[in-house]
Specification:
two-stranded parallel ribbon, 6 helices, 6 strands, 38% helix, globular
Length: 153
């Protein structure tokens, strides 16, 4: 919220919990993924991102943590680690409608954007030029995780 304020966005929380956003002229934010698992306000971050994207005030791409939460929300068996346990706990205190909205939002996130006539490519984990604009499982995996070596740090 501090960064948005410094960038001259006006963001106000309404009584229904949604955010009302006024962005500076000709400016849209880009959320680079990993909206969750990073603190104690994951539902608020999700609410803000959803509201900004719906209002066409922002773009949002999927990060590996978002992908894992999406799998969990879709009933897949995932390890609740690396912060996901806290996010799931936080989401349990929200409404079923909100959790459904989060699931639909995450289901709709793409792996990368090609913007400004190809001059700007936005991906969570990086993306080689030959993969720009392509939609394939290998492209999505590269966007989410970057070049993987099989090593765990």
């Amino acid at each position: 919220m501090e960064l948005f304020s410094k960038l001259d966005y006006k963001i106000e929380r309404k009584a229904d919990g949604h955010f009302e956003i006024q962005n500076p002229e000709n400016r849209r934010a880009i959320f680079l993924g990993d909206l969750t698992d990073r603190g104690n306000k994951s539902p608020d971050v999700l609410r803000l991102a959803i509201d900004m994207v719906k209002a066409q005030k922002a773009f949002c791409i999927c990060g590996n943590h978002d992908e894992k939460l999406n799998k969990f929300l879709n009933g897949k068996n995932v390890n609740l680690n690396h912060g996901l346990d806290k996010t799931v706990q936080q989401l349990e205190s929200t409404s079923k409608e909100f959790r459904t909205e989060v699931k639909e939002f995450l289901n709709g996130l793409i792996a990368h954007y090609v913007l400004d006539d190809g001059k700007l490519v936005v991906a969570h984990g990086g993306l080689p030029e030959e993969m720009h604009g392509r939609a394939a499982a290998a492209v999505r995996a590269f966007c989410l995780f970057g070049e993987t070596t099989g090593e765990i740090d």
